[in-house]
Description:
By secondary structure, the chain is of the alpha/beta class. It folds into two domains: 2-175, Rossmann fold (3-Layer(aba) Sandwich); 196-314, CBS-domain (Roll), CATH 3.10.580. The chain contains 16 helices and twelve strands. The strands form three sheets. A five-stranded parallel beta sheet has the order 2-1-3-4-5. Helix 15 (280-290) links the parallel strand 10 and strand 11. Helix 1 packs across helix 8 (153-172), helix 2 crosses helix 8 and helix 3 runs parallel beside helix 8 (153-172). The longest helix has 23 residues, at 2-24.
Amino acid sequence: MQMIDTGKEVLEIEANSILQSSKKLDSHFENAVKILGETKGRIVVTGMGKSGLIGKKISATMTSTGSPSIYLHPSEAMHGDLGIINSQDAILALSTSGETAEVVRLLTFIKRIGVKIVSLVGNVDSTLAKESDVFLNCEIEKEACPIGMVPTASTTLMLAMGDAISVGLMRMKNFSEDDFHNFHPGGNIGKKLLKVKDCMRKGDELPISAPDTVMRDVIKTIDGKKLGVAIITDKNLNVLGIITDGDLRRAFLKGDNFLESEASEFMTADPFTIGEDRFAVEALKVMEEKKITSLIVTKDKKLNGFIHLHDLWRTEMI
Protein backbone atom coordinates (compact mmCIF):
# COMPACT_ATOMS: atom_id res chain seq x y z
CA MET A 1 0.00 0.00 0.00
CA GLN A 2 2.88 2.35 0.79
CA MET A 3 4.27 1.92 -2.73
CA ILE A 4 0.88 2.68 -4.27
CA ASP A 5 0.72 5.85 -2.18
CA THR A 6 4.16 6.78 -3.50
CA GLY A 7 2.97 6.33 -7.07
CA LYS A 8 -0.10 8.46 -6.46
CA GLU A 9 1.98 11.17 -4.82
CA VAL A 10 4.37 11.37 -7.77
CA LEU A 11 1.55 11.55 -10.29
CA GLU A 12 -0.28 14.21 -8.30
CA ILE A 13 2.85 16.37 -7.91
CA GLU A 14 3.63 16.19 -11.62
CA ALA A 15 0.02 16.77 -12.67
CA ASN A 16 -0.20 19.75 -10.33
CA SER A 17 2.96 21.22 -11.84
CA ILE A 18 1.33 21.20 -15.28
CA LEU A 19 -1.97 22.55 -13.93
CA GLN A 20 -0.30 25.44 -12.12
CA SER A 21 1.77 26.29 -15.19
CA SER A 22 -1.33 26.37 -17.40
CA LYS A 23 -2.85 28.98 -15.09
CA LYS A 24 0.21 31.21 -15.53
CA LEU A 25 0.34 30.96 -19.33
CA ASP A 26 0.29 34.42 -20.93
CA SER A 27 1.24 36.31 -24.10
CA HIS A 28 4.77 34.92 -23.85
CA PHE A 29 3.38 31.62 -25.12
CA GLU A 30 1.76 33.24 -28.15
CA ASN A 31 4.98 35.10 -28.93
CA ALA A 32 7.03 31.92 -28.60
CA VAL A 33 4.82 30.03 -31.05
CA LYS A 34 4.95 32.98 -33.47
CA ILE A 35 8.76 33.11 -33.42
CA LEU A 36 9.10 29.37 -33.97
CA GLY A 37 6.32 29.25 -36.55
CA GLU A 38 7.67 32.08 -38.66
CA THR A 39 11.23 30.81 -38.86
CA LYS A 40 12.28 30.10 -42.45
CA GLY A 41 14.75 27.44 -41.36
CA ARG A 42 14.54 24.76 -38.72
CA ILE A 43 13.78 24.82 -35.03
CA VAL A 44 17.04 23.82 -33.33
CA VAL A 45 16.28 22.31 -29.93
CA THR A 46 19.02 22.09 -27.32
CA GLY A 47 19.30 21.04 -23.70
CA MET A 48 21.64 19.12 -21.43
CA GLY A 49 21.04 15.92 -19.49
CA LYS A 50 17.39 15.08 -18.80
CA SER A 51 16.32 18.37 -20.38
CA GLY A 52 18.16 17.27 -23.51
CA LEU A 53 16.24 14.01 -23.61
CA ILE A 54 12.97 15.93 -23.33
CA GLY A 55 14.25 18.25 -26.05
CA LYS A 56 14.76 15.30 -28.41
CA LYS A 57 11.15 14.28 -27.97
CA ILE A 58 9.89 17.83 -28.53
CA SER A 59 12.02 18.10 -31.66
CA ALA A 60 10.64 14.81 -32.97
CA THR A 61 7.05 15.92 -32.34
CA MET A 62 7.60 19.21 -34.15
CA THR A 63 9.20 17.51 -37.15
CA SER A 64 6.34 15.05 -37.48
CA THR A 65 3.72 17.81 -37.33
CA GLY A 66 4.99 20.17 -39.98
CA SER A 67 7.69 22.18 -38.19
CA PRO A 68 11.12 20.87 -39.27
CA SER A 69 13.35 20.53 -36.23
CA ILE A 70 16.68 19.09 -35.19
CA TYR A 71 18.22 18.39 -31.79
CA LEU A 72 21.66 19.88 -31.06
CA HIS A 73 23.66 18.52 -28.13
CA PRO A 74 25.14 21.60 -26.40
CA SER A 75 28.48 19.93 -25.62
CA GLU A 76 28.93 18.61 -29.15
CA ALA A 77 27.99 22.07 -30.41
CA MET A 78 31.16 23.50 -28.91
CA HIS A 79 33.23 20.93 -30.80
CA GLY A 80 32.05 21.57 -34.35
CA ASP A 81 28.31 20.96 -34.39
CA LEU A 82 27.58 24.68 -34.16
CA GLY A 83 27.68 24.55 -37.95
CA ILE A 84 24.21 23.02 -37.80
CA ILE A 85 22.76 26.44 -36.91
CA ASN A 86 22.27 29.04 -39.63
CA SER A 87 20.73 32.49 -39.69
CA GLN A 88 17.35 31.19 -40.91
CA ASP A 89 16.86 28.97 -37.85
CA ALA A 90 15.31 29.55 -34.44
CA ILE A 91 16.49 28.09 -31.14
CA LEU A 92 14.40 26.35 -28.48
CA ALA A 93 16.60 25.94 -25.39
CA LEU A 94 15.66 23.91 -22.31
CA SER A 95 17.18 24.36 -18.85
CA THR A 96 15.46 24.09 -15.50
CA SER A 97 18.06 26.26 -13.76
CA GLY A 98 18.59 28.53 -16.73
CA GLU A 99 22.29 28.44 -15.87
CA THR A 100 23.34 25.16 -17.48
CA ALA A 101 26.92 25.94 -18.48
CA GLU A 102 26.89 24.07 -21.78
CA VAL A 103 23.70 25.86 -22.88
CA VAL A 104 24.74 29.31 -21.67
CA ARG A 105 28.02 29.02 -23.61
CA LEU A 106 26.03 28.74 -26.84
CA LEU A 107 24.37 32.11 -26.32
CA THR A 108 27.31 34.20 -27.56
CA PHE A 109 27.45 32.38 -30.88
CA ILE A 110 23.67 32.38 -31.28
CA LYS A 111 23.48 36.09 -30.60
CA ARG A 112 26.31 36.76 -33.06
CA ILE A 113 24.45 35.26 -36.01
CA GLY A 114 21.16 36.85 -34.98
CA VAL A 115 19.12 33.71 -34.38
CA LYS A 116 16.09 34.17 -32.16
CA ILE A 117 15.90 32.20 -28.92
CA VAL A 118 12.87 30.75 -27.19
CA SER A 119 13.58 29.05 -23.89
CA LEU A 120 11.83 26.83 -21.37
CA VAL A 121 13.29 27.72 -17.98
CA GLY A 122 12.49 27.05 -14.35
CA ASN A 123 14.22 30.22 -13.14
CA VAL A 124 12.88 33.45 -14.64
CA ASP A 125 15.85 35.43 -13.26
CA SER A 126 18.42 33.18 -14.92
CA THR A 127 20.93 34.02 -17.64
CA LEU A 128 19.07 31.96 -20.22
CA ALA A 129 15.76 33.66 -19.47
CA LYS A 130 17.30 37.14 -19.72
CA GLU A 131 19.14 36.39 -22.97
CA SER A 132 16.13 34.80 -24.69
CA ASP A 133 13.81 36.69 -27.02
CA VAL A 134 10.97 34.91 -25.24
CA PHE A 135 11.04 32.55 -22.28
CA LEU A 136 8.28 30.35 -20.94
CA ASN A 137 8.14 29.93 -17.19
CA CYS A 138 8.53 26.24 -16.27
CA GLU A 139 9.02 26.85 -12.56
CA ILE A 140 7.76 24.13 -10.22
CA GLU A 141 7.06 24.01 -6.50
CA LYS A 142 9.06 20.82 -6.01
CA GLU A 143 10.34 17.73 -7.75
CA ALA A 144 8.42 14.52 -7.20
CA CYS A 145 11.38 12.55 -5.83
CA PRO A 146 11.92 12.16 -2.03
CA ILE A 147 15.21 14.12 -2.08
CA GLY A 148 13.80 16.93 -4.21
CA MET A 149 16.63 16.86 -6.73
CA VAL A 150 15.91 14.27 -9.41
CA PRO A 151 14.35 15.87 -12.53
CA THR A 152 10.79 14.58 -12.44
CA ALA A 153 8.10 17.25 -12.21
CA SER A 154 10.38 19.71 -13.99
CA THR A 155 10.96 17.48 -17.02
CA THR A 156 7.30 16.45 -17.14
CA LEU A 157 6.31 20.11 -17.27
CA MET A 158 8.85 20.84 -20.03
CA LEU A 159 7.54 17.91 -22.04
CA ALA A 160 3.97 19.15 -21.69
CA MET A 161 5.00 22.70 -22.60
CA GLY A 162 6.77 21.35 -25.68
CA ASP A 163 3.58 19.54 -26.66
CA ALA A 164 1.60 22.74 -26.18
CA ILE A 165 4.01 24.62 -28.46
CA SER A 166 3.85 21.86 -31.07
CA VAL A 167 0.05 21.90 -31.12
CA GLY A 168 0.13 25.70 -31.31
CA LEU A 169 2.39 25.43 -34.36
CA MET A 170 0.03 22.90 -35.93
CA ARG A 171 -2.89 25.29 -35.60
CA MET A 172 -0.83 28.24 -36.81
CA LYS A 173 0.08 26.29 -39.95
CA ASN A 174 -3.34 24.66 -40.40
CA PHE A 175 -1.69 21.25 -40.22
CA SER A 176 -4.32 18.75 -41.37
CA GLU A 177 -5.02 15.02 -41.13
CA ASP A 178 -3.80 14.64 -44.70
CA ASP A 179 -0.52 16.38 -43.78
CA PHE A 180 -0.14 14.05 -40.81
CA HIS A 181 -0.74 11.06 -43.05
CA ASN A 182 1.96 12.25 -45.46
CA PHE A 183 4.47 12.40 -42.60
CA HIS A 184 3.40 9.01 -41.14
CA PRO A 185 3.04 6.60 -44.07
CA GLY A 186 4.28 3.64 -42.04
CA GLY A 187 3.44 1.91 -38.79
CA ASN A 188 0.13 1.77 -36.98
CA ILE A 189 -0.44 5.52 -37.30
CA GLY A 190 -0.10 5.33 -41.06
CA LYS A 191 -2.55 2.46 -41.27
CA LYS A 192 -5.12 4.30 -39.15
CA LEU A 193 -4.82 7.36 -41.37
CA LEU A 194 -5.34 5.53 -44.66
CA LYS A 195 -8.27 6.95 -46.61
CA VAL A 196 -10.75 4.84 -48.53
CA LYS A 197 -9.40 6.33 -51.77
CA ASP A 198 -5.94 4.97 -50.90
CA CYS A 199 -7.03 1.34 -51.09
CA MET A 200 -10.24 1.19 -53.16
CA ARG A 201 -10.70 -0.44 -56.58
CA LYS A 202 -11.58 1.88 -59.45
CA GLY A 203 -11.82 2.23 -63.22
CA ASP A 204 -11.75 -1.00 -65.18
CA GLU A 205 -11.64 -3.02 -61.96
CA LEU A 206 -15.23 -2.10 -61.12
CA PRO A 207 -17.95 -4.74 -61.84
CA ILE A 208 -20.61 -2.50 -63.41
CA SER A 209 -23.87 -3.61 -65.00
CA ALA A 210 -26.87 -1.68 -66.26
CA PRO A 211 -30.32 -2.27 -64.73
CA ASP A 212 -31.63 -3.87 -67.97
CA THR A 213 -28.67 -6.28 -68.26
CA VAL A 214 -29.86 -9.89 -68.22
CA MET A 215 -28.75 -11.88 -65.22
CA ARG A 216 -26.76 -14.30 -67.38
CA ASP A 217 -24.45 -11.40 -68.31
CA VAL A 218 -24.48 -10.03 -64.75
CA ILE A 219 -23.08 -13.36 -63.58
CA LYS A 220 -20.33 -13.08 -66.20
CA THR A 221 -19.45 -9.64 -64.83
CA ILE A 222 -19.34 -10.93 -61.26
CA ASP A 223 -17.17 -13.86 -62.30
CA GLY A 224 -14.87 -11.77 -64.48
CA LYS A 225 -14.12 -9.03 -61.96
CA LYS A 226 -13.81 -11.56 -59.10
CA LEU A 227 -15.16 -9.23 -56.41
CA GLY A 228 -18.29 -11.21 -55.66
CA VAL A 229 -20.67 -8.43 -56.70
CA ALA A 230 -22.11 -6.48 -59.61
CA ILE A 231 -22.83 -2.78 -59.09
CA ILE A 232 -25.95 -1.66 -60.92
CA THR A 233 -25.77 1.90 -62.25
CA ASP A 234 -27.48 4.06 -64.83
CA LYS A 235 -25.56 5.56 -67.76
CA ASN A 236 -24.48 8.51 -65.56
CA LEU A 237 -22.99 6.13 -62.97
CA ASN A 238 -25.65 6.88 -60.38
CA VAL A 239 -25.72 3.83 -58.10
CA LEU A 240 -29.06 2.03 -58.29
CA GLY A 241 -28.31 -1.22 -56.51
CA ILE A 242 -26.03 -4.20 -56.01
CA ILE A 243 -26.18 -7.93 -56.75
CA THR A 244 -23.97 -10.23 -54.69
CA ASP A 245 -22.97 -13.88 -54.84
CA GLY A 246 -25.35 -14.38 -51.95
CA ASP A 247 -28.25 -12.95 -53.95
CA LEU A 248 -27.49 -15.44 -56.74
CA ARG A 249 -27.39 -18.40 -54.34
CA ARG A 250 -30.68 -17.41 -52.74
CA ALA A 251 -32.36 -17.03 -56.14
CA PHE A 252 -31.02 -20.40 -57.26
CA LEU A 253 -32.24 -22.16 -54.11
CA LYS A 254 -35.71 -20.68 -54.62
CA GLY A 255 -35.79 -22.39 -57.99
CA ASP A 256 -36.18 -19.08 -59.83
CA ASN A 257 -35.42 -19.22 -63.54
CA PHE A 258 -33.64 -15.89 -63.43
CA LEU A 259 -30.93 -16.12 -66.08
CA GLU A 260 -32.89 -14.14 -68.65
CA SER A 261 -34.39 -11.72 -66.11
CA GLU A 262 -33.10 -8.16 -65.85
CA ALA A 263 -30.70 -7.08 -63.10
CA SER A 264 -33.20 -4.54 -61.74
CA GLU A 265 -35.48 -7.42 -60.65
CA PHE A 266 -32.84 -9.03 -58.41
CA MET A 267 -30.68 -6.16 -57.21
CA THR A 268 -30.73 -4.80 -53.67
CA ALA A 269 -31.63 -1.14 -54.04
CA ASP A 270 -29.91 1.64 -52.05
CA PRO A 271 -26.84 -0.40 -51.05
CA PHE A 272 -24.43 0.73 -48.34
CA THR A 273 -21.91 3.28 -49.59
CA ILE A 274 -19.02 5.33 -48.23
CA GLY A 275 -17.16 8.44 -49.41
CA GLU A 276 -13.62 8.23 -50.76
CA ASP A 277 -12.29 10.74 -48.20
CA ARG A 278 -13.46 8.72 -45.21
CA PHE A 279 -10.83 6.79 -43.26
CA ALA A 280 -10.36 3.15 -44.18
CA VAL A 281 -10.94 2.20 -40.54
CA GLU A 282 -14.41 3.72 -40.87
CA ALA A 283 -15.10 1.48 -43.85
CA LEU A 284 -14.04 -1.51 -41.78
CA LYS A 285 -16.34 -0.44 -38.95
CA VAL A 286 -19.32 -0.18 -41.33
CA MET A 287 -18.58 -3.63 -42.73
CA GLU A 288 -18.41 -5.12 -39.25
CA GLU A 289 -21.62 -3.42 -38.09
CA LYS A 290 -23.60 -4.31 -41.23
CA LYS A 291 -22.04 -7.79 -41.51
CA ILE A 292 -20.96 -7.22 -45.11
CA THR A 293 -17.63 -7.70 -46.86
CA SER A 294 -17.57 -4.75 -49.24
CA LEU A 295 -18.72 -1.17 -49.78
CA ILE A 296 -19.48 0.90 -52.84
CA VAL A 297 -17.49 4.14 -52.86
CA THR A 298 -19.32 7.23 -54.09
CA LYS A 299 -18.45 10.84 -54.86
CA ASP A 300 -21.25 13.34 -55.35
CA LYS A 301 -23.61 10.34 -55.22
CA LYS A 302 -21.99 8.72 -58.25
CA LEU A 303 -19.97 5.50 -58.39
CA ASN A 304 -16.32 6.25 -57.78
CA GLY A 305 -14.85 3.02 -56.50
CA PHE A 306 -15.28 -0.17 -54.54
CA ILE A 307 -13.57 -1.41 -51.39
CA HIS A 308 -13.50 -5.02 -50.25
CA LEU A 309 -12.51 -6.48 -46.91
CA HIS A 310 -9.57 -8.12 -48.67
CA ASP A 311 -8.30 -4.67 -49.70
CA LEU A 312 -8.15 -3.72 -46.03
CA TRP A 313 -6.38 -6.97 -45.14
CA ARG A 314 -3.64 -6.14 -47.61
CA THR A 315 -2.89 -2.92 -45.72
CA GLU A 316 -2.26 -5.05 -42.59
CA MET A 317 -4.66 -2.71 -40.82
CA ILE A 318 -6.46 -5.82 -39.54
